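Observation: inputs received (chain + Z5A).
Thought: call the complex predictor directly.
Action: predict_structure
Action Input:
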Amino acid sequence: MGLFITFEGGEGSGKSFQARKLTKRLQELALPVVLTYEPGGTPLGNKIRLWLKRVDKFEVSPLTELMLFDASRAQLVNQVIKPNLEMGKIVICDRYTDSTLAYQGYGRGLNLEMISTINNAATLGLIPDLTVLLDIAVEAGLARKKNRKQDRFEREALAFHQRVREGYLKLAAEEPQRWLVVDTSQSKEETAGAIWHRVTQVFSQRGAPIT
Ligand code: Z5A
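Observation:
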């Protein structure tokens, strides 16, 4: 059964931790699961990731940034996500198209319809079965990452991160059947429990219950 789950959220929301935890739990049930991430997840995508996160010496326009995220995504969908779904595996992706709507759309102010068109072209219309939004107040999320070296996005103003958070919440409200919003100011275990509860529901709805 191919199943596509994405994790989304702002800085320090804990989505990478939760994506790994869910992968491990599914593996323990001997289910075939692949964990990947954006930007990156392929050799080409990882080069693009470095440009996007670490470039300080020259300017990257918002439109160029959008194209680079979607170039990395097109390669990842083609090389990793689609083939594994076609083999019936569960694919978990740490960030996907909704990151572009939240960061380049709500954050940078690019047109949302244009972004959707480009996202759609890069993914050949592949939409996740479930998207988990890990939501936390911007200041609390940034505080969790304050001891790490900051990248181009983490150095953005508080107002940028606030627009990203509000954008995510709007996207989730528009499509409640696809999204699960979890408040991650609670503990890692409580957050993982809420995610697991929804994942088991998805499996049951597909006639393949897990415990
Ligand atoms: N970006 C974009 O603009 N457009 C796009 O289309 C895409 C991405 C795809 C990618 O960077 C950047 O690209 C990203 C958006 C932009 N912006 N930034 N920055 P990345 O992949 O390197 O970074 P990230 O995606 O933001 O994720 P991350 O570094 O892996 O962080 P995280 O997922 O938010 O959190 P974490 O590492 O799982 O947890 C952070 C810390 O909090 C860690 O110490 C945890 O132990 C702690 N934590 C987690 N959960 C809890 C709870 N519940 N309680 C207490 N502490 C916790």
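Thought: report the result.
Final Answer: Residues 9, 11-17, 38-39, 53, 69, 95, 99-100, 103-104, 144-145, 151, 153-154, 184, 187-188, 191 surround Z5A (CB under 6 Å). The beta strands are 3-9, 33-37, 90-94, 130-135, 179-183.
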